[in-house]
Design a protein that fits this description.
The protein has two domains: about 100 residues, no CATH class; about 80 residues, no CATH class. Helix content is about 25%, strand content about 20%. Strands 1-7-3-4 form a four-stranded antiparallel β-sheet, with no helix packed on it. A three-stranded antiparallel β-sheet has the order 2-6-5, with no helix packed on it. The chain has a two-stranded antiparallel ribbon with strand order 8-9. Helix 2 packs across helix 3 and helix 3 runs antiparallel to helix 5. The longest helix has 19 residues.
């Protein structure tokens, strides 16, 4: 999950407005929707993929690798030493061409159908000084906004205040006024332009495969 119940509590959602179980269910639902819309997942997960080689030295896996435990070509396990295999993955660096595995020494991912098997921990994470990285803060933000949108137990006034809290750039306590970083409106995915802006920015490229 891309946010925690404690995150929503810190934003002012009370037990009377939503129980821990209700918030957990909404966070799970929002996290699944983020995965569906973007085509990525944004936390470390153990995955095993079968890919098709194209006779090229580089292959783009469907998610950024964090740590590889296994690589096999045509059923033969391959060395993971950095002298023979270059791994470009997570934490993701802005501007990179995407996740990539590259064989060195003139070797290639031989052409075939689902003949490449790779396993390990994968996920689109951002740098936080740790080896695995963290869920991007923007994705956490989107998840929380989606949960706030799904809280019918909030009163109308409280709902508007909670949902706008993430957008506040400036607040003046004397007259209780504030301004928002963007106007509310409609977006193509969720109907919220701020959430949609984040999800569109983190969408997975259309095609990842051998290169």
């Amino acid at each position: 999950m891309y946010a925690a119940v404690a995150d929503l509590r810190a934003e002012g959602v009370t037990e009377a407005q939503a129980t821990d179980d209700r918030l957990t269910a909404l966070i799970e639902e929002a996290s699944r929707e983020i995965d569906r819309v973007t085509g990525w997942f944004f936390e470390p997960r153990f995955m095993r993929y079968r890919l098709s080689g194209r006779g090229t030295p580089s292959l783009q896996p469907p998610a950024p690798p964090i740590t590889l435990d296994f690589l096999a070509i045509d059923g033969t396990e391959q060395s993971l030493d950095e002298e023979v295999l270059v791994v470009v993955g997570a934490p993701v660096v802005v501007g990179d061409d995407g996740p990539r595995l590259t064989l060195l020494g003139g070797r290639t991912f031989t052409r075939g159908e689902a003949n490449i098997e790779v396993g390990g921990r994968f996920g689109f994470t951002e740098d936080d000084g740790t080896p695995e990285g963290r869920t991007p803060l923007a994705i956490r933000r989107a998840c929380m906004l989606m949960v706030l949108r799904g809280l019918p137990l909030l009163t109308s006034a409280d709902s508007d205040d909670a949902k706008n809290r993430w957008r506040i750039l400036e607040e003046r306590t004397r007259d209780q006024s504030y301004k928002l970083d963007r106007q509310k409106g409609s977006g193509p995915i969720t109907g919220d332009p701020e959430i949609d802006g984040i999800l569109l920015r983190y969408r997975r490229p259309m095609a990842l495969g051998g290169v």
